[in-house]
Amino acid sequence: MPWAKETTAVADAGRAExxxxxxxxxxxxxxxxxxxxSECITCDLCRRNCPPEFGAIFDRGLDVVIVPELCxxxxxxxxxxxVDCIYVDEEWTPTPEQLWDHVGLTxxxxxDDPAHHA
Length: 118
Known about the structure:
Elements: H1 2-21, E1 33-35, H2 45-49, E2 57-60, E3 63-66, H3 76-80, E4 86-88, H4 97-106
Antiparallel strand pairs: 1-4, 2-3
C-alpha cells in the first residue's frame, strides 16, 4: 500500500518526538499499561506485538517493562499476554533516566527490532 510508508514515517516521527520530549501524547485518552513483573513469564509476546508506532515495551534485564510515555493504552499487549499480567496504570510515574538511556539506544527500531533485546 503506497500510503503505508507515509503513515509509518509519520508514526515514527511521533514516537521519536515522544522519546525526545519524554512525554505522552496529550491526545491519548487512555492511561498507559503496566506489566506486573511478579506475574510475568517473560515470553516477550507483548513486546513483539506492541504496534511499532508506540514501541513502548522493552526487555530490561530479566523483566519486560512498558514505558508509559510511549504507551497509548491500546489493548494489543493485553490481548496477546498468556498470563494476563498487564494492567491499566492510572497512577503511572515518569520513566527513570536509566530506562530512557536504554530507550534512546533502541529508538531507531520498531518493536520487532532485535535491538529491543538489551
